[in-house]
Amino acid sequence: MEWVVNIQEGFIYHDKVALIENLNFQIKPGEFAYLIGKSGSGKSSFLKTLYADHPITATRAESCGYDLKTIKRKDIPFLRRKTGVIFQEFELLFDRTVSQNLEFVLLATGWKDQNAILSRIE
Predict the structure, then answer these.
(1) Which of 6, 25, 67, 79 has its CA 20 to 30 Å from the CA of residue 99?
(2) Closest Cα partner for 3 from 26, 32, 30?
(3) Any bridge partners for residue 8, and if so which?
(4) Spatial distance between the Cα atoms of 41 and 68, rounded to a whole number of angstroms
(5) How many C-beta atoms surround the C-beta of residue 7 within 10 A?
C-alpha cells in the first residue's frame, strides 16, 4: 500500500452542502498526523469521510485500501476496523467497568473467542 489515505481534488458533503472543497491530502504508512483547526472548520467531517460516514466526490479518494467513492455498505465495518480515530468526546458506559467497556467494543467489532478477548484486554 503506497498510501494510507490519498484524496485528490476532493469535495466533502453533509446534507448536500459542500463542507470542504478541493481537498488534496495524503498520508503514507508510518506517518503520524494531527488535525487542528477552529470549531466548525470541518475537522470532524473530514474524519467521518475517512471512515465512510460522509460522502465524497473526488478524482481519487482512498482510505486504508478502500475506494471511498465506491465503497459498498457491507465493506464499511471492515474499513472502520483498519482506522484509528480517538474522539474528543468519547465516553465510557458508566454502568460497566473499564474491562467490561473494552469487552463490549471487542464483541461489537467481531471478536468471538473469549480467551482472546480477555488476553487482549489484559
Answers:
(1) 79
(2) 26
(3) 60
(4) 21
(5) 25
Confidence (pTM): 0.68
In angstroms, the CA 83 to CA 120 distance is 18
Name the packing angle between helices 98-108 and 114-121 (round to 10°): 130
Q: What is the pLDDT of residue 44?
A: 87
Q: What is the pLDDT of residue 19?
A: 87
The answer to whether residues 46 and 5 touch, using CB atoms and an 8 Å cutoff, is no
Burial of 63 (0-12, 13-18, 19+ CB in 10 A): buried
Strand, helix or coil at 57?
strand
Nearest C-alpha neighbor of 19 from the set 44, 52, 51: 44
* pLDDT at residue 87 in the model: 64
Q: Which residues of the chain have pLDDT under 70?
A: 1, 85-90
